[in-house]
UniProtKB/TrEMBL annotation:
The keyword Transferase applies. It comes from Martelella mediterranea DSM 17316. SUPFAM superfamilies: P-loop containing nucleoside triphosphate hydrolases. This is Sulfotransferase domain protein. GO terms for molecular function: protein-tyrosine sulfotransferase activity. Keywords: Transferase.
Length: 333
């Protein structure tokens, strides 16, 4: 099993599509199982869940796997398959049922290695690797300024994506964005990535290197996962950008995305906030600062905006986490 994690908008989806092109790997849509449906304690202890509760969760996961995380569960649509999965699962805990579901769908597609690509799993990486002793984990890291530029325009996927983002999700993406918030989140993810790279079953891949030299990066991942590199892995569709229309008929790696943030999508003050907040972590990964210091009035303006947007974002995201207190604590660590 392969898990792809990292800060949001760091290339996890791109890597997932590359791995899905492998003859033995089946990449799933973002399932948001860990952290949203189960917390770290549940992952570690695997308590018994009532049958109805397990069935509801599996139906939600099957819906996301079949369509995407935006899709609503259709009553009864996956009930029979969920029951079959639960019957196949030897243990009465939801983590085991999740693993059975991944394996079942992967085998049905004619492949053998399931790949889950939900970025937030980075914050429960240790628990996941302990729960799945045969799994490996790939953590993506990307220039924080590129991440901010992508996050800033993420809500626009509501208009330009093939599978349109629901309006509420677009609104939440817009509210979630503030340069200070995104920079703090990136720095937090970077610290987690630095810890994770010490694990023998984990590897950290920088987005820029994946685009400039995809073969060597993919070969390193394949070696860790115990599979052979295949040239077809590089032939991915050009989709998923926050600023460009999807081009599913064009295949390959678009190396120009590395410096796309330099096209003016970020204001000078956004660049300054980002670099000041992430300076230590940027230096570790070799990202060079370019911004000039902000003036006092601009700093005050962004501070007020940060306070307002942070409070609103918390209200809009509170249901996305099983244990909000634990979630905040792990991101502040």
């Amino acid at each position: 099993m392969i898990f792809i994690v990292g800060n949001s908008r760091s290339g996890t989806t791109l890597l997932g599509r590359m791995l899905d092109n492998h003859s033995n790997v089946r990449t799933f849509e973002e399932l948001h199982f860990f952290e949203q449906m189960v917390d770290s304690k549940t992952i570690r202890e695997r308590p018994n869940w009532p049958l109805d509760k397990r069935r509801q969760v599996i139906e939600r996961l099957l819906t996301s796997a079949d369509d995407n995380v935006f899709a609503k569960v259709k009553p009864g649509h996956f009930t029979a398959e969920a029951e079959e999965i639960l019957n196949e699962t030897r243990a009465p805990d939801i983590v085991s049922a999740y693993a059975t579901m991944l394996d079942r769908i992967t085998r049905r597609s004619g492949k053998t290695v399931p790949c889950e690509q939900t970025p937030r799993y980075l914050y429960v990486a240790e628990e996941i690797l302990e729960a799945f002793p045969d799994a490996v984990m790939v953590c993506m890291v990307r220039d924080p300024r590129a991440v901010l530029a992508s996050q800033k325009n993420k809500w626009r996927r509501y208009r330009i994506a093939r599978d349109r983002m629901p309006l509420f999700w677009a609104l939440r993406a817009w509210v979630n964005y503030h340069p200070k918030t995104m920079a703090l989140m990136w720095a937090s993810a970077s610290r987690r990535a630095r810890q994770l790279q010490k694990h023998p079953r984990a590897i950290v891949i920088q987005y820029e290197k994946l685009l400039s030299d995809p073969r060597s990066q993919l070969k390193a991942i394949c070696e860790l996962a115990g599979i052979e590199f295949e040239e077809e892995m590089i032939q991915v569709a050009l989709i998923g950008s926050s600023t460009a229309v999807d081009k599913p008929d064009q295949l390959g790696v678009d190396a120009s995305r590395v410096d796309a943030w330099r096209n003016g999508s970020l204001t000078p003050s956004e660049l300054a906030i980002c670099e000041a907040t992430t300076a230590k972590e940027m230096a570790y990964w070799g990202y060079t600062p370019v911004a000039r210091p902000m003036t006092a009035p601009v700093r005050v303006f962004h501070t007020v905006g940060f306070m307002v947007k942070s409070g609103t974002a918390l209200l809009l995201n509170v249901r996305r986490f099983k244990n909000l207190r634990e979630t905040i604590k792990r991101r502040l660590a």
